[in-house]
Amino acid sequence: MVSDSVGKPLAGTTVALYGSNRFLTITDSSGIYELSIPAFLNDTIIFSYVGLGIGHTFVNLREGEKRKLNMTLVFSSTNLPEFVKKEDKIDRGTPMEIINPKIVDVNPGPNNSIESIVKTYPGVTSNNELSNQYNVRGGNYDENLVYINDVEVFRPFLIQAGQQEGLSIINSDLVSNVAFSAGGFDAAYGDKMSSVLDIKYKRPTDFAGSVSLSLLGQSLSLEGSAGKGHRFTYLFGFREKSNNYVLGSLDTKGDYNTAFTDVQGLMTYDINDKWELEVFGNFSENKYNVVPSNRTTTFGTVSAALNFVVYFDGQEIDSYQTLNGAATLIYHPNQHFKLKSIFSAYQDNENESYDIEGQFYLNQLNNNLGSSNFGNVAFNLGVGTFINHARDVLNANVYNFEEKGYYTYGKNNELQFGAKVQHEVITDNLNEWNYVDSAGYSIPIQPDTAITLQNPVWVTHNISSNRYSGYVQNKWVFDAASKPTLTLGVRTNYWDLNKQNVVSPRANFSIKPEWKADFVFRAAWGIYYQPPFFREMLDLNGNLHTDIKAQESIHFVLGSDYNFKAWDRPFKFVSEAYYKILDNLDPYFIDDVRIRYLGNNQATGFAEGIDFRLNGEFVKNVESWASLSIMQTKETIANNSYYNYYNNEGQQILPGVIDTKAVDSVKNTVGSIPRPADQRITFSILFQDYIPKHPTFKMNLNLVFGSGFPFGPPNSTNFLDAFRMPFYRRVDIGFSKQIVGENSKAPDHIHFLKHFTSIWISLEVFNLLDVSNTVSYTWVQDASGTKYAVPNYLTTRQLNLRLNVKF
Length: 807
Hints:
The protein is mainly β. The chain has 3 helices and 45 strands. The protein has a 22-stranded antiparallel β-barrel. Strands 7-12-13-10-11 form a 5-stranded mixed beta sheet. The protein is globular and about 90 Å long.
């Protein structure tokens, strides 16, 4: 039985084998639980309950042995993503980081999501707090695997900006376990080049629920079970969010009308002792409507301060509707063998429509500190008009059938295998163009009176294809004091559209030397192919390249964990160095969150770096962590060159030169260039604190720093991003008070509060330092051809109130 410090049974306590995604359960209303684990296993059972400290006990059972384990949990301000063992520290050698989803409840920020926690981990970068997307070790958003209960989920195709994304597909209220790998992951996971995020939803026992209200939206979750032995369980989650409040702080003012809605459900039924059925469903609809009115952006330096003013006409109306469903039949005749048959379907309907006209003025500001007109417009650099038009419609249907198997043998060895068939049907209709007029001249200027549209795309695509994949891997835990662990696996993938078959061998090894200091060393190697999906096949003109091949990344990873004590408190220092050889790359540009590929395999490259993370009790009984990453990634594009042209006077022909008749040219070959995700240094802190004599008052701080991403003019003919964005700097902070909970009982005269197990109220300050972070650039070109990069800033400082209730 699991109970609190006064002997009260704790219903809903998670009981799990440390580092495992499969051996876990939850206590019932009496605090009772049953957990089956492999025999002869030297490891630790973890007990976790929100608001209480993590408990643990060491186990090693013989075949058929049963043992009664009682656990008492005491108060802690929060449970953090990682548990540091205080005795019998044995690392199972898994390459996955285990993250506690309960941290989302206290993490401040405009996106309360699992991804917001992942962004604080080493090797993960992001420069957009409005987006749930993230880069991992030099990769882009499309290179990350995400699973919910073994079902792969997809990100939308057409979304261009973070404010259009809305809710993450992962409902953190329903999550029980999260595992993340930044590279070197096993063959059991699919075919992407960078990372994997593995989500497991709850298996509830008794009825419970939660409600969350804030200025950004609300959510409701319900869970429970029925039948003898909790044979039937259910999870239900509803979320609604609006970004209107947050978007009001952007430079572009107007009438924002956003509505993001998500409904999810998971039901399980134990047919008998050997068979189990699981059904998952998700429906989400994102609506983003905006009627912009004006924009004023001040940028540049003290010596060259500029002002960009735009007056808008028109509107944008977007909708993104997705439907996910999965049915899983599980057969487990005994504790050694399990089969999972998974059928899943994904449907995506996206529509983007906008006609926006902007009349802009680019001004030089007065920079004379002694002038009475300091900061006002000194003179005008250019005026013009632009029109952006789109009528984009995309429909995607993806159907999967997968068979997965697990077989445990010996003392702690495990064989995994699987096969998958995927059918895809995608229909795409793109109708986009831009028009730019500067001082009465259509840009680019033509020798006649022709009007030229920029970036015109008028295409329709219909594709239908099949993918076949499979894997087998085996994990050995050798019977030695140092517990060496070796995992070897291989997976294969064939796509009938480009007729390519790829084979990906992968290996992981770990060992814990018998030293006085508590170290664990890890090594991983693997070949990771990424067969193209629809987005990678489209080039900048909208042409579809069905013959494009899979991109390739070879991972080399070395890492270590060091567990130690400081100030008589537990800490863990994790370090990992990596090198990735990249081949058959499909070069791309990125604007905000929209990725546009060249649709070919013309590049090779590399990514290298080192990650550090220190996790521990910086404040007694409360764990926090700090992460530091140093990385660079570059690519070399085949035949990447450009010409400099010179006139008769030997002048290079540039914007502003009068004589533009070329009589000579010089060819320049471009060598290795930074990839778009080349963020050299990132640093993040997630820090938690509380008032010692009043533990119901808490503080949570999230700090992120990142050096600038490379950027350059759009559609550059030489793909040379020679500039760097400013550093990304953001601090979000939250102050919370527990109204009802383990250490704050409800007043006797307020009877209805006794029905709640926890009530927290929080005041959050977003972007505490009020830093103007840049997410992308708007390029303005005058009649002479001179281009100006106008920064698109993210949100400013804002306040948010949040109420979290559990019952």
